[in-house]
Amino acid sequence: MTTLLQLKAFTSVVDQGGFTAAGRRLGLSQPAVSRAVATLEKELGLPLFVRRRDGLSLTEAGSVALTHAREAVRHLTLMRTEVAGLAGDISGTLSLASLPTATAALVAPQLQAFVERHPAVTIRLLEGSEQEIRDWLDQGAAEAGVVRLPIRGLDVAVLGEQEMVAVVPAGSRLASKETITYPDLASEPFVRGTGGCADVFMPVARQAGVHFDLAFDAREVTAALEIVRAGLGVSILPSVGLPDLPGVAVRPLVPKTVRRLGVAVSASASAPARAFLEQVAASSARRHSDSHRAQ
């Protein structure tokens, strides 16, 4: 009979890209993970992986089984956490997917408060692009995720905002300006981030009739900054969480461009994910109330 361990071993091998990494994630030895997956394959009657020198890939049976395995693990985890919740305790795992630029400044403080309130919950943090986070939420690899607002079809709480800034080489003519406009940036080779920020500023550029000279695509903020520091181009990046790097000048962007972020969970999210969403929503309400009083 299929066990929870077998299902967790199978899904972890897929998520971690191998048996050894899955073992580290689960706190098991590599042979133990291999045995669990082999037993599951025997019970199902078909191999789940194609094993090659360059790594693993799912068979057709594996792709079908993965969807059901994720759902089974999610439902069993949900059962445990909801039963524990009847006793007033929240336990289990919070699988949270975050944008790298949001983790330190926006997500980490929320996680710190959450752990203090719910010490029995284990945190599993993933980082990826906006599209990867949406895919992880859809596939069940993450139960909560940082997303750009507005968004439909998910329960959401406002996390915060990231103002976009112009990033230019420190020795360039643009670095001498107090503010930098979209037309200013259009006159230089442009480094476009592929993590989701471009979806925020590209519509603004089009509305202003500006066409960037796209010279580079960079997935990571650090890669974009290094290209700028080398004098090869300019970029637009979120100010929150942006490291201070010698050779790079950061200036306010005109017109002001903001990315609004939230934490989203699915309707069937577990108790830890729901509790985290409620905490973020409460934090947002307090910020709004404080801002209103300050005015």
Automatic annotation (TrEMBL):
Lineage: Bacteria, Bacillati, Actinomycetota, Actinomycetes, Mycobacteriales
Residues annotated as domain HTH lysR-type: 1-59
Pfam families: HTH_1, LysR_substrate
Function: Required for the induction the katG gene for catalase. Involved in the response to hydrogen peroxide.
Domain of life: Bacteria
GO cellular component: cytosol
Species the sequence originates in: Mycobacterium alsense
UniProt similarity note: Belongs to the LysR transcriptional regulatory family.
Keyword list, A-Z: DNA-binding, Transcription, Transcription regulation
CDD domains membership: PBP2_LTTR_substrate (cd05466)
Protein name: Probable hydrogen peroxide-inducible genes activator
One Gene Ontology MF term: DNA binding
InterPro entries the record matches: HTH-type_LysR_regulators, LysR_HTH_N, LysR_subst-bd, WH-like_DNA-bd_sf, WH_DNA-bd_sf
